[in-house]
Amino acid sequence: MRRRQALGMLAAFMASGASARRLRAGQAGRSWSQFRGDAQLTGVADSPAPPLSLLWTEELGESIESSAAIADGTVYVGSRTGELVALDLGTGARRWVYAAGSEIGESSPCVDAGLVYVGDSKGVLHAVGARDGTPAWSFKTRAEIKASPVVAEGRLLIGSYDHHVYALDARTGTLGWKLETDGPVQATASVDDGLTYVAGCDASLRAIQIRDGREAFQVSSGGYTGASAALGGGHAYYGTFENEVLAVDLRARRVVWRYTPADRQFPFYSSAALAAGNVVVGGRDRLVHAIDAASGRAVWTFATRARVDSSPAVAGGRVYVGSGDGRLYALDLSSGQRIEDFDAGSPINASPALAAGRLVIGTNDGQLLCFGREG
């Protein structure tokens, strides 16, 4: 019985992944328009796998914890300087700089319909023109924004440390609704079929109707959660500070497996990537873990020399992930074997952005790095 359930779960996962790839075709190959690349937060790109050959670097002045967005040949990224910067993907040349007025930490830009959105440490959500950085509107929450914005059904979805999830009109910034939770909201919202899913510091995964903000259901995670939930095959996958990675069946509304490494007890802060039937996630145990999506069993682990808060991204059968040891790794998706790595000389907490055969990532010493092939 368990084997049939596992096979059914894997088939659904693979079908969902194929569907998501079709939806992203012609778009994600040339763009990575938000945190984790798509609204389901799968961390998978339809881009060719880039080699870790450094093409250009740009100094942004302070730590880069924000993960880049890439759209229409432009890279958008925030930094602790309080600036949102737009750069040419091909050359690294700056196109414009927008001063947010406060540090931009982990909140990563989202690009949609000619606007770029990002949150800051004072709780302000900024919307600026993608072409020239001209301010369009802003919205003030009551506490820091670490979550990354997501656009769905004409609404901008964002969580705040003020214990609320907000839905704003993406064009005007007008409040549509807000939902109060029982703790800070650090994770980025994932979206599927009219619902947004938010894992929170209140140890719950909430499903919220996008149209009106009504809570459809919630599932107890059993622990504080800073990671964002990746969606695939009717399931949500995410790690917690209770040293577990969870698979939640969204139809049954229950946890179907918990992955807990037996020999190391460390939190999972990294958000998972979903590819080829695997859940790939970094841990503060210094390991990158690949977990079978159907059974929750370990497939492989890869050891780095420091904690892995960076969220893995996948392209062309390769897993790309940064580590606190200052290296960016490219691993084989099926085996976890190291293909190559790059020594950035500074810890990497940001996550890779993959588009058009290139990879962009920031470091804690303020360097923005772009990798790929020339031409």
- From the spread of the alpha carbons, the general shape counts as globular
Distance between the termini: 53 Å
Strand content: 35-45%
By DSSP, the count of extended strands is 32
CATH fold annotation: Methylamine Dehydrogenase, Chain H
Number of helices: 1
CATH class: Mainly Beta
Helical content stands at under 10%
Which strand order do you get reading across the main beta sheet?
1-32-31-30
Average pLDDT figure: 93
Our count of domains comes out at 1
Uncertain segments are: 1-12, 14-28
The CATH architecture assignment turns out to be 7 Propeller
| Name of the CATH superfamily | YVTN repeat-like/Quinoprotein amine dehydrogenase
Break the fold down into its secondary structure elements and pairings.
Layout: H1 2-24, E1 54-59, E2 69-71, E3 74-78, E4 83-88, E5 94-99, E6 110-112, E7 115-119, E8 124-129, E9 135-140, E10 150-152, E11 155-159, E12 164-169, E13 175-180, E14 190-192, E15 195-199, E16 204-209, E17 215-220, E18 230-232, E19 235-239, E20 245-249, E21 254-259, E22 273-275, E23 278-282, E24 287-292, E25 298-303, E26 313-315, E27 318-322, E28 327-332, E29 338-343, E30 353-355, E31 358-362, E32 367-372
Antiparallel strand pairs: 1-32, 2-3, 3-4, 4-5, 6-7, 7-8, 8-9, 10-11, 11-12, 12-13, 14-15, 15-16, 16-17, 18-19, 19-20, 20-21, 22-23, 23-24, 24-25, 26-27, 27-28, 28-29, 30-31, 31-32
